[in-house]
Amino acid sequence: MAMGRWSVGIFLGRVLVVLSFAGVLAAQNEVRNHAAFNLAQTSPFLSAETGIQYSVWQEPAPQEPQPQEPKKEEGDNPASVVVDKTRDATIQAAQTTKDAGTAALKKVREWESGWIAGGYIGKNRRLVPMTAQQRKDLYLRQTFTTASPYLKRLFAAGIDQARGVPREWGGGWGGYSKRFASREGQFFASNSITAYANAKLGYEPRYDQCKCSGFGPRLRHAMLRNFVTYNSTEREHRPQLALYLGSFGGGLISTAWKPHPRNAFAEGGRAVLGQAGYGVALNVFTEFAKDIDRKIWGRRR
């Protein structure tokens, strides 16, 4: 009985030793696997012999430099870009409007003075004898191709309408149209005779502003130039024979369409007197046109 108990104790001791040894081996194996797992988190490498995954150190591969995006400036903001473009477009539009307004204002100023004064020689320009072609161009401008002569005839026909002459033509638009046509025909005849006579005599057909200063001397020059002009030397004065010959001829020819009875010489004389008064007024305006322009437009600015 005692031997049996001893044998059982020895057997149990051996079992305990075997179990203890097995537990130690299992613990060692667990530790080894746990360490290998932790190392594999950084650089995994699988051994061909054991199949255990473990870590080895590798030299990092050189990396190519990555292109850097340009830094966005404040103006690269889409909202800022839209604002800048809108501002530039507004400034450009304002400048364009200003330039157009300036050009229109200049044309209006030239129209206000030019349609009355017509062509003339400024005080800072030297008188030079005109060629035949220049005389022809001046005649066409003063008679047909510019608005100035038509506007002047409209004004003169308005005066005739207000006076009621000739009374046979009556009033209203019918009477005014007849008076305007009469003025146009008389002006065409008068200007044609004057241009032809000036060309034959070599006289100066243009008005020249006085190179003097002061209101009195300039006024005298303007009045005198309605009765005298320059010959081909552009320095010597001659009577305005061609101008008044044309005025007389235009008045005489106008009797061909005016209501009869009409005295041709009386009509010619009235045309000469009209040129004396109208010519002085036109020369005075032309002489002081720049001064009037500055006074009017200076205040408007």
Brief summary of the model shown:
This protein has 9 helices and 6 strands; from the N terminus they run αββαβαααβαββααα. With 301 residues, the protein is mainly alpha-helical.
Q: Tell me, what's the shape?
A: elongated
Give me the count of strands: 6
Strand-residue proportion: 5-15%
Quaternary organization: single chain
Average pLDDT = 77
Gyration radius (Cα, Å) is 56 Å
Cα-to-Cα separation, first versus last residue: 143 Å
> Major sheet: order of its strands?
1-2
Helix-residue proportion: 55-70%
Unreliable stretches = 1-6, 35-59, 107-114
Largest sheet: 2 strands, antiparallel
Number of domains: 2
Query: Which secondary-structure class do the elements indicate?
Result: mainly alpha
Please provide the ordered H/E string of secondary-structure elements. HEEHEHHHEHEEHHH
Count of helices?
A: 9
Structure, described:
The chain folds into two domains: 11-47; 113-300, no CATH class. It has a two-stranded antiparallel ribbon. A two-stranded parallel ribbon has the order 3-4. Strands 5-6 form a two-stranded antiparallel ribbon. The longest helix has 40 residues, at 78-117. Helix 5 packs antiparallel against helix 7 (241-254) and helix 6 runs antiparallel to helix 8 (264-287). The termini are far apart. It has helices at 2-40, 78-117, 132-145, 147-163, 172-201, 215-224, 241-254, 264-287, 289-300; strands at residues 44-46, 53-55, 120-121, 207-208, 228-230, 237-239. It has 301 residues and is mostly helical.
